[in-house]
Write a structure and sequence with these properties.
The protein is mainly α and 328 residues long. The protein is 73% helix and 0% strand.
Length: 328
């Protein structure tokens, strides 16, 4: 620890790392979510209770993906925000809506799966699409209320093009750390433990009931694996490193410096790239819940192979040509 001079933080890392991640997520996310939403809307009349949450999950992803082009410009311009303070706050607000909305809807899916498997007789006929819609509205409202205070923190500094902070300026970093810790507890930790508890109990029930449908058991295990991937890759590292980086900034402001400050900053930027991957990974829930999509993928791959084979044979003159006769 050094109380006189702090080690230099490598702020250039985010300019090299985040733009390629945003471009990849934007392309993959739009294609995957667009396809998933189209599949759900085509079967709107058969929309189940859980699929209402899946639909909202896709809408949350699309909302965030539409802001990524502006963030690409921002980081390509070496952190010079040219779109104004209000739109900076809207962009960060959309990110938070997507992040905590995704966590909320994944939690709702987990609770519904738990009730359907562990307490099927109690909930049979009692859960309707109307209930799912009402719960979805409540999730959007709760996430908005949690995210709204973030918009009152300074996101830009000065009238000239400059930073668009994903948290806030160093002047207010102490207060923001307290807000972030509370936000992490209510917006992430609580839903995470609910999801973990639901699927933990479901797996125990499925493993102890030999009469349980094997297809149902396979689907639950697959969804549990998807959730483990989402939380382990996207959500847990981001929340841990975000608060650790804020704490490092508070210490730095107090001239209490640590050698690990730069490492924490770089790790936090990596976690920011990983957390935005949730918009590209959430469609895995579509693949889990819709049996038609894997079949469509196989059909598209088969058509692509046939087309490639046809083009290859055509280029080398191997495609058979219909023979003509004098009688024609």
């Amino acid at each position: 620890m050094n109380n006189t001079s702090c080690p230099r933080v490598n702020f250039d890392f985010e300019h090299r790392f985040l733009p390629p991640v945003f471009i990849s997520v934007f392309i993959v996310g739009l294609v995957a979510n667009g396809w998933g939403l189209k599949s759900l809307l085509q079967k709107w009349k058969k929309l189940g209770h859980v699929n209402v949450f899946v639909l909202n999950l896709g809408l949350a992803d699309i909302l965030y993906l539409l802001t990524l082009p502006f963030l690409m410009v921002y980081y390509f311009m070496k952190s010079k925000w040219i779109f104004g303070d209000t739109f900076c706050k809207i962009t960060r607000f959309c990110f938070n809506l997507n992040l905590y909305g995704s966590i909320g809807f994944l939690t709702c899916i987990s609770v519904y799966r738990y009730l359907a498997i562990v307490h099927p007789m109690r909930v049979m006929g009692k859960l309707t699409v109307t209930h799912s819609v009402a719960i979805s509205v409540m999730v959007w409202m709760l996430v908005s209320v949690q995210s709204l205070p973030d918009m009152f923190y300074t996101k830009t500094f000065g009238n000239k093009p400059g930073k668009c902070y994903d948290t806030t300026h160093k002047t207010y970093v102490e207060d923001y750390l307290k807000y972030s810790l509370g936000w992490t507890l209510t917006g992430f930790c609580l839903p995470f433990f609910i999801t973990l508890g639901c699927y933990g109990h479901v797996i125990v029930i499925l493993c102890h009931q030999n009469t349980t449908d094997k297809v149902l058991k396979k689907r639950c295990l697959k969804l549990l694996l998807i959730l483990i991937v989402l939380f382990s890759v996207c959500y847990i590292p981001y929340h841990v490193l975000k608060n650790l980086n804020l704490w490092s900034r508070v210490l730095s402001k107090q001239q209490i410096c640590h050698e690990w400050s730069n490492g924490v900053y770089i790790a936090y930027q990596i976690s920011r790239g990983l957390v935005c991957l949730n918009s590209a990974l959430n469609p895995l829930v579509y693949l889990h819940g819709n049996e038609d999509i894997p079949a469509q993928l196989r059909q598209l791959l088969q058509q692509a192979r046939q087309m490639s084979s046809h083009l290859f044979l055509s280029n080398y003159g191997c495609v058979p040509v219909a023979q003509t006769t004098d009688e024609d």
